[in-house]
Amino acid sequence: MRPGTGYPDGLGDVRIEFWGAAGEVTGSCYVVHTPRARVLIDAGLHQGEREAFEHNQRLPGDLSSIDSMVLTHAHLDHAGRLPMLARKGYTGPVYSTAPTADLCEILLMDSARLQEADAARRARKGPTQNGDPEPLYTPEHVPAALALLRPTSLEVWTPVAPGVQARLVDSGHILGSASVELKIDRPGEPAARVVFSGDIGPRGMPLLLDPTIPGSEGSPPDLVVMESTYGDRDHRTLESTISELREIMHQAIWAKERVLIPAFAIGRSQLAIYYLGRLAGEGVTPTLPVYLDSPMAIAAMKLYHRYADQLDERMNYRGARGRSALDYPELHLCETVEESQRLNDRDGPLAIIAGSGMCNGGRIVHHLRHHLWKRDTRVLIPGYQAANTLGRRLVSGAASVRIFGDEIPIRAKIDTVGGLSAHAGRSELIEWAAASRRGGRCPIVLTHGEDPQRESLALALSEKLGARVLRPAFGESIEVPAPART
Ligand SMILES: [Zn+2]
After folding, report:
1. What is the DSSP letter of 86?
2. In angstroms, what is the span from residue 27 Cα to ligand 1's centroid?
3. Predicted TM-score (pTM) above 0.85
């Protein structure tokens, strides 16, 4: 018996199981076990890593025992397995911000189509290739998943399961992205507080507001779980990024190049349009035709306009002719496959923004296949490229890459513009960690980072903050320390 509680030993414990983003940047999925409930934080797709296929198939425990779920934001590596959980029998509520719920509608339908296409490709290769040819889910499973979404307001406590309340705050990463704070009742003890960072955006990034530090009442949390994507390095400053971009676009326009920009449909695509518009607005570069070749990015852009009140002053300022920061005058929207294919024959200078952000699927792969071997092409990589993705092979200087069975020599210029990342750099992560501990001394759990980045950040956090830092492996469970009695 747990002394003074009337509960058996262990029943008052709170622990977290890590079913993804443990030593990798994709597949975020954590189960919070509390005395009276189980709450899932995110249900992301694993992408790129060797075990991705197997890990995607694996459920985070018995779904009927999970009371509710909280989604941090509408990126596939955080929300992409939601329809699979609904398909396998999860019927509980899914709490998120309102923009995240709306973005999920476009994200998950697109993902379902990609799942079907991947499954068809596996089926063609035969049953021995990567096991099950069955897709994780198809478009018909998406409406049931969307019906579970419960949009909630930022910065209010919402009861999400028996004895568990959640509070979402803006994490500044994409429209609607949130950090999550949980308050968990424990028998005979003060409530436990656990903070999940979600993906943390950099400060000062255009369009978005800066991240809000979780913790409404100033009480220190008992555990902080945070991302470590760029745990080993800082980004370039915004000013130097813009001058770098200006230089690249100058060269591209002068040499009449075709600039291919692989970008996540949600977040990075809108940021890319903003920057190209800003350069054109300065009059430094001519207004280059920009093709947004992604129905999902086009739909997401409409939501950026709809939720402008949750974004920064650039989105709310109306300049000449009532244009906002995303109204680029030479922007062409490519909704259909035919419109996308027509771009193959178009000569530069022009820019094409297409998904996926790590070149492991989507229309960008077709553009790369058509143009990587040409010297009048430039690939502008604006974000993180996970291990084993086509994007990673491009940035690591491969001489050729295999696309749809063809070996394509790389003659295009490959530029990485690090300062456009939607993730905080190392110094900002350390500052975020210090602030979110709110003067307490709780342990910090590092997730959502490959091992070199997470080890580097772990060392910095223990040296600079004196923090105990934990780095869970896939499937590992960590107990939330008992709150200090007051
Ligand atoms: Zn994200």
Report:
1. H
2. 11
3. yes
